Please model this.
Amino acid sequence: MLIDTHSHIYSEDFNDDIDDVITRAYDNDVRKIILPNIDSSSVKKMLDLVDQYPQICFPLMGLHPTSVGEDYKEELELVEFWLKKRKFYGIGEIGIDLYWERTYIEEQTEAFRHQLKLAKAYNIPVVLHVRESFEEVYAVVKEEMDERLSGVFHSFTGTLDQAQKITDLGLKIGIGGIVTFKNSGLDQVVQQIDPQHLMLETDSPYLTPTPFRGKRNESAYLIHIARKIAELHDISVNEVAKITSANAINLFGI
Model:
């Protein structure tokens, strides 16, 4: 069994064929899919999909850093509203994004810290978005770290030193399609990280792995990421599935 620990298959990219997408995932041994939220505009579509496939899809609640703007406090109030209303398996995706713009860096940091505190209050894990912001995210996480905080650095593309910092905090590392890209260099880093620290993800519809790069990503393609990690560590795909799925089950309680 494979678990896609980060997938946005509730997005409009899948409006026309979501049932086929779920079937293809299942046919490729992907039996559970974690759905991170973006902001107030994505909640309904995400929860509708969860209600349609409750044995496969597991929702997270959170405010994505690129959705942090002048109205971020209202957005955070909605996050809190939903957390009280129904079960979520984590807070995410949350973090700091300095790739798209830096206008709201202070607001991003405040929203991020607030949501880390929510995760601790609800005793659920966090899924961390880190884009050109590793040091900023790591500093806040380290300040907030205690026995109640667990989670994963999603879509990891960093260095071995950064990976060590993550695992020293007891957090997991999410590996997606970039590890299959020929010149990414991520394969050389992942080869040196014990699989016990890893979880698999697609980040669908983005970051499609080789050999489908350039096309819409979907959860069924997780198998190609698992095969790459198996190759890098000279172990079987079954072993990769066993280790990474156990990590996901233990972290998210699914």
Q: What stands out?
A: The chain has one domain: 2-252. The first helix runs from residue 18 to 27.
